[in-house]
Design goal:
The complex is a heterodimer. The termini of chain A are far apart. Chain A has 10 helices and 5 strands. By secondary structure, chain A is of the alpha+beta class. In chain A, strand 4 and strand 5 (124-133) form a beta hairpin. In chain A, helix 3 (59-71) packs antiparallel against helix 5, helix 8 (182-195) packs across helix 9 and helix 9 (199-212) packs across helix 10. The radius of gyration of chain A is 19 Å and the shape is globular. Chain B is of the alpha+beta class. Chain B has 2 domains: 3-166, GAF domain (Beta-Lactamase, 2-Layer Sandwich), CATH 3.30.450.40; 171-236, Orthogonal Bundle (Arc Repressor Mutant, subunit A). Chain B has 8 helices and 5 strands, in the order H-H-E-E-H-H-E-H-E-E-H-H-H. Chain B has helices at residues 3-17, 24-39, 65-73, 79-86, 103-111, 144-198, 202-215, 220-229; strands at residues 43-49, 55-60, 90-94, 116-124, 127-136. A 5-stranded antiparallel β-sheet of chain B has the order 2-1-5-4-3, with helices on both faces. The chains are: A alpha+beta, B alpha+beta.
Chain lengths: 242, 246
Amino acid sequence: MAGGRRRERFLSRLLSGSAPGREMKRLCDLCAEVTGMSGAGIMIMSGDTPQGSLCTTDTVSALIERLQYNLGEGPCVDAFQQERPVLEPDLVHPSPARWVAFSAPAIEAGARAVFGFPLQVGAVRIGALNLYRDRPGPLSDDQHADALVSADIAAHAILMLQADAPEGEIAAELEAGADFRYVVHQASGMVAAQLNVDLGQALVRLRAFSIGNDRPLTEVAEDVVGRRLRFDDGGGEKYPAP
Amino acid sequence: MPKQAQLLRALVDLADTLVADFDLVELFTLLTDRCIEVLDVSAAGLMLVAPEGDLRLMASSSEAMRILELFELQSSEGPCLDCYHTGVPVLNQTLASANGRWPRFSAEALAAGFRSVHALPMRLRGTVIGALNLFHTDRAEMTAVDVDAAQALSDVATIAVFQFRASLEAQVINEQLHHALTSRIVIEQAKGMVAERENLDMERAFAALRNHARNHNLRLSDVAGDVISGALSASALDRRPPVKMS
């Protein structure tokens, strides 16, 4: 199928039946559907770091996005940094060996193959599209072509939606289903005040605690904001007795 | 090389420069140079309409002062201006007989040694954005094949302009998105700091920042930035609800 036909088919489906506030969710669902994948997620990135998810199709996609946000590694991160598709058809036996921290929890959640596609318009880099499947195997030529078209349309759709946003704000359509992990930034602010350090150092302490205790960064942040966890100068972070 | 092969070669070279972050002026310069080879013209120039509405020279096959002046002149009269206004090609204009139509331009062009002049529109659907200007020193007419080739080269320039504009626009929107996200993150960080220092929940911490901003007529993101930089201490926030104007 020619590229033009692929775009046409995708757009006609995107434009039929998108409820207000559900545009991005619909976009994610369609990306998974047209490529025949188990799920999809769209990540916003800047300066080589994930900034959050615009949408995910299901809990596994949400976990794949969250792991990459917390760990800073995975198919989306690589696709964005390398500006090309990053394909891992067999997450259990990856070649090359990669994503040491990301892979185990992603496999445990049910992902067997993961594919990252950069979201770009010309030289403008927006983020990455994450696709996963619950069984191993490469993308067919057809699926690969559909994934490229999906990523291209997603990139244009994001900019189109943001173009109408009021100055200094994120478009409501983009914010609607997004997860920008605000709780991590709130927790950074609290830890910075607890330790009298700057926000960069506070985030490092949060990350170190998350890795040291094998708990997701977002969960640790929620405990800080919920005042179940405090950081103190001795480095002996503690959970107050109930 | 046969004519057709030359044109093909030129189009491929131009397409090659249309990569992700291409330089528009570089592409235009390449294009005017190729016009000389492919179309057997003596000089070529590309003129684009500026935001103010007048035509400006973007690239010329020659840097000779007399030729550059010929292009400059056309912001007020000449084949490019006519072509831009009508959207149709201006072809085979003998300068000796065009005196009545463009008196100043014709005199200058004749003095520069040219015999005939042509202009092809840069047009996409209904929009004309400029013109490709061609000069001959040795003859009056372009062949039909050359006219088609010239329009093809002009079309490449047009596509490049639209692509360049789209990519600039994309860059601006993407920067706005990331800027909005960054200022939102700063606000969340400041909320956390105020919540901790003043022992408030997130909602009250946000209200404190927002009320301070309103009471002092400041932007919320600026107040948040001052809190996290330490320029404004959490205890100094003016937390009173803003007075409503009746």
